[in-house]
Design brief:
The complex is a heterodimer. Chain A is of the alpha+beta class. In chain A, 30% of the residues lie in helices and 18% in strands. In chain A, 44% of the residues are buried. Chain B is elongated, with a radius of gyration of 25 Å. The mean pLDDT of chain B is 87. At the A-B interface, helix 8, helix 9, helix 12, helix 14 and strand 18 of A face helix 10 of B.
């Protein structure tokens, strides 16, 4: 018996020694590596490109997979460049046919899904397959809206049962390295969609081998390969098969006047990725992320939380770090590519469309009064350090069609006018409808609600008629929006591409719930203008149409809008990086280097 | 008539003191308990004043700047959106009392009924069933169970109340069960049986009234537990939904302390500490006073 115990104890000791030795070696290995630790405030649920509907998934997808086009790393405002494509496309005169040559010799990362575990070459057929997956319900896709009714034959292919052996007229491989896309009508935003994670190229072998697990075992031809992934962290390592593409400052849109301090010029001529290991932590709490960032040996890049502003910054206009922080960190500032706003759900007859024309008019007056009660400067000061940019309508400053001259009445608080509007239209404290405000459980979201309720109280809206409805997760509230269950929708929108069409589609009639038009705005004139502009290339004429549509939304009092937040990003001095402007976020990670 | 010797003196027997009057006298001699009681009464008056609309009616209004300092107008300053922290802390007293009272009364009632039945029928299937049920509830970590119930009831404003009542009755029930097992062997219960009273009448008319001293102490303990649990649950985001509470104020302070602003945290913590401490002192004194073995 004693001998048995001795053997077991000895074995356990030996095992422990060897395990700790392994761990020690691993640590030593990592210590010698170039590791960059990045963090995001949420975790993706799936890394399958067809399900990469949120920014968190997109950050990883854009590094593990290739898209035909990418945004230039350093160009501001954002500009496209060829990614997997060899060059920008040849477009037919009528704007309906795009011919895109692909790079040759690009390989997927090595993976057991391939014969002998060696990644094979990426071909035009892979792109065709990847787009088709968005029209295959079995893949549970989220990105079909980008190409629905726009690429010839895709909708019919889906209706016929999504048989991959059947060709689609509108998306074809002309040869091994040439893709041809044929549209039903001009679609000037098409190239932007080909830079989104949704259009990333996947190998059929891996999709078939892993099935639903492909979402956690992604295989692509991007700069990195996913080593591990769980709800707390994703670890990426360089894809050893990644093509040799020397970094070029001029091709990436380098501006020495504003970007020299970042030392990106040192990377000229080197081939990305420059890291040995990219660790992405999912840290929901801003304060926890900040603590990790300031610790020194953990997260190396973070957004500055509002509550730290007075400790970290010397001034906010312009944004300047205090000397003790400037000695340790680099800084970049810029407006987000998107905005925050709230819209009424016009499906609710209490405040939206009502069959009774008189009530309909009164409802519009009520909505307008709510909009004029909103104190944007106070919101900006309380939650966005006063650095956000308040603008009328839904065309934010991040897109070229933004109109600085647009009248600002809709974002200027006027309590007297709002009260008068209510009184003139027969609204009293007794007959005002109950306004249900949905939000995800959380301290800040609750304060958003309380501030909104206080604004409304100032125009005589009884507080007991402004009711909070909590949702446990963001997914729950998104479901409620898409099912048209909430009369008032408060949210943020991140631009998918730098074109106002991306925000104006949020109010396009055919996109009504469960689509992105959760305001359920239905205005035939607006829809007609949207359809007219949808086929137009960027031009003054199109911009004028966009602005007319924007004014319609303001006149119809559809939304309390809007504010574009200022991003203040800091990173450790030993990191060479320029954070991206958040359109298709994450693309910059392949160019990050660490001293 | 027989003569009565002068030396014999008739002394009046001391009046017989019941449990309650003895307890009252004992309690009155307990200074800490009395201080606790007065403080609790003060809080109760504050809560009643909020309920009647005498003060803190503007707890939800934006009346100052972001993170305004302590001033004559704002005794504890203002929060992130400019609401008066003192008004919010006062309003939270009402929330604490509402929750504490409802949970204490209902969970004590449920615990008493289940405990009485289990004790009266001890050894039988009713006892087995109640014990099994209590064991099941006890075996689940408290906050996990409350969170599960609160989530499963969705956005019902009473979710937290129900969750707490569903868990707090168990402790009371165990105590009552033990007391009833003891009481049911007493002569008065045998007498009740002998005159043919129904079992229900015996339980509710004769046994349960004799457990009131336990129920009273348990109710005060539950009251404090409910207030503390609310603070934790609200802090975690599964507590009070519409309204204000000390827990929500402490949760709010998590985004403020990093900015060096502690007013929400201090206001909520102080008021909660005062009430919980006072209630504990009151509860201890009450327990001592009602304990027949206590000689103080």
């Amino acid at each position: 018996m004693w001998r048995l115990i001795a053997i077991v104890t000895l074995s356990a000791l030996l095992l422990a020694c060897s395990a700790s030795d392994d761990a020690g070696n691993n640590k030593a290995d990592i210590k010698d590596q170039k590791v960059f630790r990045y963090a995001m405030s949420g975790s993706p649920t799936s890394l399958d490109p067809v399900q990469s509907g949120n920014v968190y998934a997109n950050v990883i997808v854009s590094n593990v997979f290739d898209t035909l086009y990418n945004y230039k790393y350093l160009a501001r405002p954002p500009e496209l460049k060829p990614g997997l494509a060899e060059a920008m496309p040849e477009v037919s005169d009528d704007g309906l046919v795009y011919t895109i040559p692909l790079k040759q010799g690009v390989l997927f990362a090595d993976d057991p899904a391939f014969p002998d575990g060696k990644g094979r070459e990426v071909t035009a057929e892979d792109f065709v397959y990847s787009i088709k997956r968005h029209f295959d319900p079995a893949a549970r896709p989220q990105g079909a809206w980008l190409w629905q009714d726009r690429i010839k034959g895709l909708d019919e292919w889906k209706a016929a049962g999504s048989d991959y052996s059947v060709d689609v007229e509108g998306v074809r491989a002309l040869d091994r390295y040439t893709v041809r896309i044929e549209l039903t009508r001009p679609y000037p935003q098409l190239l932007y969609t080909l830079a989104m994670g949704f259009s990333a190229v996947v190998p059929v072998e891996a999709v078939e081998a892993y099935g639903r697990e492909f979402g956690i075992r992604p295989v692509g031809s991007g700069a990195f390969r996913l080593e591990s992934f769980n709800t707390a962290k994703a670890v990426l390592v360089p894809n050893s098969n990644y093509r040799d593409e020397p970094f070029s400052l001029s091709a990436e849109g380098y501006d020495p006047a504003t970007q020299a301090y970042t030392r990106v010029a040192e990377l000229e001529g080197l081939s990305p990725p420059f890291l040995d290991r990219l660790e992405i932590d999912f840290i929901q709490e801003g304060s926890a992320l900040w603590s990790s960032f300031t610790k020194g040996n953990e997260v190396q890049m973070a957004s500055l939380p509002d509550e730290q502003v007075k400790f970290v910054l010397d001034s906010t206009r312009p944004v300047i770090l205090k000397p003790e922080f400037a000695a340790k960190y680099q800084l970049a500032t810029g407006p987000e590519a998107g905005f925050v706003y709230s819209n009424f759900n016009l499906d609710f007859p209490e405040m939206g469309y009502n069959p009774d024309p008189e009530r309909n008019a009164r409802n519009k007056a009520l909505r307008c009064a709510v909009i004029r009660s909103f104190d944007w400067p106070a919101r900006n000061d309380s939650f966005y350090m006063g650095l956000g940019q308040v603008f009328p309508g839904v065309i934010p400053p991040g897109v070229p069609e933004f109109d600085e001259e647009m009248p600002r009445d809709s974002v200027t608080r006027d309590v007297v006018y709002a009260k008068q509007l209510l009184a003139d239209n027969g609204w009293t404290a007794d007959n005002l409808p109950t306004l249900v405000y949905g939000t995800v459980a959380g301290v800040k979201s609750r304060l958003f609600f309380e501030q909104f309720r206080a604004f409304l109280k100032d125009i005589g809206y009884p507080s007991e008629k402004v009711v909070l409805k909590r949702y446990a997760t963001f997914g729950d509230i998104v479901r409620a929006w898409s099912r048209s269950e909430l009369p008032f929708v408060s949210k943020g929108w991140g631009l998918d591409y730098p074109d106002a069409e991306n925000t104006l589609q949020l109010f396009y009639g055919p996109n009504a719930s469960p689509g992105s038009n959760d305001a359920n705005y239905a205005n035939p004139k607006y829809d007609a203008l949207f359809e007219q502009a949808a086929t137009m290339a960027p031009s003054d004429e199109r911009t004028a149409i966009y602005r007319r549509m924007n004014q319609m939304l303001v006149d119809d009092c559809v939304a309390v809008t809007g504010l574009t937040r200022m991003r203040i990003t800091l990173w450790h001095n030993n990191v060479i990086a320029v954070p991206d402007s958040s359109i298709v976020g994450g693309g910059f990670l392949r160019y990050v280097d660490v001293d | 008539m027989a003569a009565v010797p002068e030396t014999i003196v008739f002394v009046a027997a001391p009046p017989r003191q019941g449990l309650w009057s003895k307890a009252f006298h004992k309690f009155c001699r307990d200074r800490a308990g009395l201080v606790g009681l007065w403080v609790v009464l003060l809080y109760a008056i504050v809560a009643l004043g909020v309920w009647l609309g005498f003060w803190a009616g503007d707890w939800a209004d934006v009346t100052g700047p972001k993170w305004g300092p302590v001033s004559a107008q704002h005794w504890f300053g203002t929060n992130l959106i400019g609401q008066d922290i003192f008004a919010r802390a006062l309003y939270s007293t009402r929330t604490a009392f509402e929750l504490g009272l409802v949970v204490a009364v209902l969970s004590t009632f449920v615990g008493a009924v289940f405990g009485a039945f289990a004790g009266f029928f001890s050894g039988g299937w009713i006892d087995e069933l109640v014990l099994w049920f209590m064991g099941v509830i006890d075996s689940i970590p408290f906050y996990l169970l409350v969170a599960a119930i609160a989530f499963s009831l969705g956005d019902s404003p009473y979710a937290m109340y129900i969750a707490m009542i569903a868990t707090f009755w168990v402790g009371t029930s165990r105590l009552v069960r033990g007391e009833v097992i003891k009481l049911k062997e007493f002569e008065f219960v045998e007498a009740a049986h002998a005159i043919g009273l129904s079992e229900l009448a015996i339980i509710f008319r004769h046994i349960l009234p004799n457990t009131f001293h336990i129920l009273l102490v348990q109710a005060t303990i539950t009251f404090v537990a409910a207030i503390k649990s609310e603070v934790i649950l609200s802090f975690l985001g599964i507590g009070i939904q519409d309204g204000m509470s000390w827990g929500l104020m402490i949760a709010e302070s998590t985004i403020e302390v990093l900015a060096g602003f502690f007013n929400n945290f201090i206001a909520a913590s102080l008021l909660m500490f005062g009430l919980v401490m006072a209630f504990n002192m009151f509860s201890d004194a009450l327990q001592d006073a009602l304990d027949p073995r206590s000689v103080r």
